[in-house]
Amino acid sequence: AQSLEVLQPLLRGAVGFMAEPGSGKSTLAASFAARGYPFLTDDVLALQESPQGYLANPGFPFVSLSSESASHVLGQHTALPVLALNDEKQRVAVDGSWASFCDKAVPLRGLFLLSRSGSGKGVELERLPSVEAVRSLLENTNCLPLLPIANVRQQMAFAASVAASVPVWRLRFPSGLEHIPAVVEKVLEGAA
To answer: What is the pLDDT of residues 45-102, one digit of tens each?
Structure first.
């Protein structure tokens, strides 16, 4: 899952994005970062329980973007240092030149399950019922099938607790980078 500290002035917390690889999580996270919201992590969101609720922990200060997404999101900053490069994505440093990095744990304020809508539909946001929220959290948990059964039970209980404490939304949007501004607005609407 992706996460970033997106509503610091309003909610002082983080939201996370869950979806299959290539669904736009990193592009969406980088779009928020380019708008001035501190970036928290890419690829993995580590959560921990605290007396104040669930905290989202920072990851490494880079984001993986396709060259098309990097050009769209970074604009004039496309000459940023690339930390790693493969056939599909490049890792771009979140070093303060185009976005700030949040280096401390912050309260988790919401999770968004990303999915594509039909080409004729706009951006849609719906709150998931608890059972579907738990299922979505488990489906987006790294390495769950590799865990011993006792750990799977613990992870299921953890997912149920997170879903009971944090709103989980389904966010549907059409393919295409031109839809990202509308998606950002829907995330802000849901998080508020």
So the answer is: 999 999 989 999 999 999 988 888 888 888 765 555 555 555 678 888 888 888 899 9
Q: Would you give the end-to-end CA distance of the chain in angstroms?
A: 20
CA distance 120 to 101: 36
Task: Give 189: exposed, middle or buried? Use CB within 10 Å, 0-12, 13-18, 19+.
Answer: exposed
**115 three-class SS:** strand
Instruction: Give the pLDDT band of residue 20 (cuts 50, 70, 90).
Output: confident
Closest to 61 in 3D by CA, of 43, 49, 75, 88: 43
**Helix/strand/coil for 135:** helix
Question: Using the 8-state DSSP alphabet, how is residue 151 labeled?
Answer: H
